[in-house]
Amino acid sequence: MQLVGExxxxxxGANRGIGRALALAVSQAGYHVIAHYFRGKxxxxxxxxxxxxNGGSIELIQFxxxxxxxxxxxLEKWQxxxxxxxxxxxxxxxxxxxxxxxxxGENWDKVLRTNLDGFYNVLHPLIMPLCRKKKGRIITISSxxxxxxxxxxxxxxxxxxxxxxxxxxxxxxLASRSITVNCIAPGIIETEMSRDVPLDMxxxxxxxxxxxxxxxxxxxxxxxxxxxxxxxxxxxISVNGGII
Length: 244
Ligand code: NDP
Known about the structure:
8 helices, single chain, alpha/beta, binds NADPH dihydro-nicotinamide-adenine-dinucleotide phosphate
């Protein structure tokens, strides 16, 4: 496989779900993939094996996106040894759904610290090397929940809406350096995270009448990483089967 100019792309939460599809698609497009995982080492190793078998180029990295020091330490070390990334896909995230009156402070904090603080924790150590290079791509993963608000997801909707605001502001800051910053907002995608969604209740609200596949999110990410997407920045692009 011909590497795209040896371009390196990190995908957080690459061991399963949407992240796994992202890593596979990014690798298939010819990039060197730095596949991040948190607890799922075995799944990450199976991804590594699959990508190598397909002739792709991959390495693994582990850290907790809710732990600022852990992110800084691992990401600075990686960059010292390898230089700046070309692309950063901030995909890792969690939900902890409860109706708001019953929502524990712990579930509020956990979801905000992982999803929203994770934006700062992962991107902050990577920004200056990217700025010095004056090129690159940042893609964040929000959710339809961050756009419309979802019942039982006040914490998750808050975090995902926060990611949209942060993405747009960062896009403005980095635009003059030819670094694009965009957000993908998936609808309901078939992964472990969505396994408890009551499909009979939600399908009528999806014009395409079905939930999405992780690969259908990954295709957009590969396009946003490409040279063809060099004038697209500060955008939130939904992949949701037509939900408004
Ligand atoms: P999954 O639950 O399948 O996977 C979550 C990923 O996030 C795993 O790789 C997990 O790593 C990683 N992760 C969780 N907590 C941490 C942490 N503290 N530090 C580092 N990594 C962590 O989720 P999906 O693939 O469904 O979701 C991926 C992204 O897409 C998320 O941001 C999610 O909010 C968003 N999304 C998903 C939708 C859906 O319907 N599935 C819809 C809209 C948005 P590990 O396994 O190693 O713990």
